[in-house]
Amino acid sequence: MQTAAEIGLIGLAVMGENLSLNLANHGFAVSVFNRTTARTDAFIRGRARGTTISGYPTLAAFIRSLAPPRKIMLMLKAGPVVDEVIEQLLPYLEAGDILIDGGNSHYRDTKRRVVMLKGQGLHFVGCGVSGGEEGALHGPSLMPGGSKEAWPLLEPLLLPIAARLSDGSSCCSWLGPGGAGHFVKMVHNGIEYGDMQLIAESYHLITELLGLEHRQIGEIFARWNSGRLNSYLIEITAEILSFQDEDGSPLLEAILDAAAQKGTGKWTVDAALDLGIPLSLISESVFARCLSASKEQRLAAAPVFPGPGGSWSGDPRALLRDLEAALYMAKLISYGQGFQLLATASRDFSWNLDLGEVARIWRGGCIIRSAFLETISQAYAQCPELDQLLLAPHFSTTLNQAQAALRRVITAGVTAGIPAPCLCSSLQYFDGLRSSRLPANLIQAQRDYFGAHTYERTDQPRGRFFHTNWTGQGGETTSGSSKR
What's the confidence (pLDDT) of residue 480? Predict the structure, then answer.
């Protein structure tokens, strides 16, 4: 008689296949099911052959194969399909069973599912999974959250399959209730958008200003990867730039400059708007992808708007030094914005996120893994209630030292007509953050003038609001208030 499986997995696309192999490689008995049975059969005959993975043609057989309490991981496309599969599973499930959503579901959907399934005696966990195909197979960063009662049963399964840091610790940690896990994964993806755009802008500036070959640019990124910019995305950028097409030319030149997106970047921006967080750099990275996708419009506009023209004649070595510093500064600002969003969500949703732990589990396995995430972990270890990451000593010192370089890089790009929206956005945010006084007083005056929205005064305590009858024809009634 076959031993009951310790975990089941539904959905055998790239991530599902590789996660099931990862589980099997760590000695777990795994049952798998896919709606298209041909995919299940091909997987069992192919990559899963000789492993502890068993495939089943029906949900009923799949469920029977699992040891109670059943632990079922859904590796499905986010959205209605997750709810559809949950509905299909419900007749077979019993109180205490656990469903784990390992896809990129929206955190509000996860929160809803946690509540809905709890009412039926079931546990639901939204688990962010980052690392792509390689990470899923060899060790991803895992971000579980939801029904806390499920964690003691899942911990022995998830900790071993996650990426490991040099100290042996696992890049997996319980994050909090409700949609906490998927929210953290969403912000991770938003930061990923920003990182990728900043790297692309740096590549573009080097290409246009210095006219270097792709192999030479790849060597620059490889050199940067050996220093403070050390990260997975810088590492693969160096490899991509050096990769040749079949005819020996750089493959990158043959790839259309129209970036796609799956929506998690937009979700991050939406959440920032809902919570009132100035996530300007990540927002620009999302819009940059949108503009890149408008290829036909850009082709039509290029001959109409020729730009400044002329060539750049500065010191190449000085530019590269500046660009390395500018890229690092912009990345710090992006992460600072992202962690401010996490901190605000944690407070508003009562998640009690450990932000230092979030930075720690991002250090391995995930797409944005980088050396300076350790510095972020240390900053929160020294001050768990840190409200603004950029004010921590390492970050404030770095920003002060690098701001001149960032200004020079942006000046060179703007003068040459080279778009660098995220680099520019990082500087605008920095200058706004360091300004003790902004022109928002005029905005408040305008709002009060046309809509009686009131304003606060500099010579009065915060929280007291005033209204002026600017035209002499208005009254004392203010917007959303009674007459006073």
Answer: 62
Residue 98 CA: distances (Å) to CA of 95, 115, 262: 9, 13, 27
Q: Tens digit of pLDDT for each residue in 350-385? A: 999 999 999 999 999 999 999 999 999 999 999 988
| Tokens of residue 460, six digits | 């009065």
CA distance linking residue 342 with residue 386, whole number of Å: 12
Residue 185 falls in the annotated catalytic set: yes
Residues in the chain: 484
User: Helix 264-275 vs helix 280-293: angle between axes, to the nearest 10 degrees?
Assistant: 140
Number of domains in the chain: 3
Cα–Cα distance for residue pair 207/210, rounded to 1 Å: 6
What global pTM score does this model have? 0.94
Cβ proximity of 227 and 207 under 8 Å:
no
Residue 2, domain member (yes or no): no
Catalytic residue among 17, 192, 284, 324: 192
Report d(CA 100, CA 80) in Å as an integer.
16
CA–CA dist 439, 445 (Å, integer):
10
Round to whole Å and give the CA distance between 330 and 281. 8
Count other Cβ atoms within 10 Å, centred on residue 27. Answer: 9
In the residue annotation, 192 being an active-site residue is answered as yes
Of 118, 149, 178, the one marking the end of a domain is: 178
Residue from 71, 111, 185, 266 carrying the catalytic annotation: 185
Residue 326 counted as domain residue: yes
| Mean pLDDT score, 227-245 | 96
